[in-house]
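Protocol step 4 of 6.
Sequence for Primosome, DnaD subunit (Sphaerobacter thermophilus) entered exactly as in the expression construct, tag removed. Do not edit the line below.
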Amino acid sequence: MHHDAGNDPDARIPVPRQFFEELLPAMRDIAEIKVMLTLYRLLASPDWRDGVVPESALYTDEHLLEGLRLTGAALLPLDDIRRGIELAVARGALLRFRVVGDDGGEAWLMPATPENRLRLGLFEQGLAPLPPAVGAREPSLRVERERPNVFRLYEQNVGLVTPIIADQLIEALELYPEQWIEDAIQEAVSYNRRQWRYIQRILERWATEGRGDEADRRSGRPATAFDPERHLRGKHAPIFRRRR
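Step 5 output, structure tokens:
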């Protein structure tokens, strides 16, 4: 059992000024805020004094689980924790890395301070020893920085994640389930429409009219593909293009 600063009512948990002045004003998702505050609390405990916390510790933290669980809900809010972590990594509030080996390795988190950014760079280059909590790195293993899943999927299928695209992906993560974004990217690729605007239209359509596959499953009909630009082609195109 981990001993945590929360067990001592008089214990002080340091939260950097940057969190309140730069990060918190931009955060709209309560899961992201609670993930960050939980991380600071864990870092104040003797177990994680090396400045890194395993991602799995957030998924098993009873205070975080209770804080995000809906009243009367039977299921644990693991998806909410996942969303909070992904948002914090996407926003640049958290750094996430793995010691990559045959089994993929445990994911580790630390606040994205300038010192930690430098520290992670040294880990990646093998110029600094890993914290004892992470363990010794064998010569065959490497440290790999991990970006959010939707960032990786976008770059693999659409294009470079520029700062503007990153902001739009973060906003999408706040508005829609992550699976929707991944599916919308795949849908756009299937139509060879590799543009964020097209992906955004798919998400907006699903949000207002529901996802076609979900409606079709309820009605017993086979799922049909959705092309949000069908109204921008053909005889009605001038009408819709004037409204854009």
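Step 6, annotate. Residues 215-244 have pLDDT under 50 and may be disordered.
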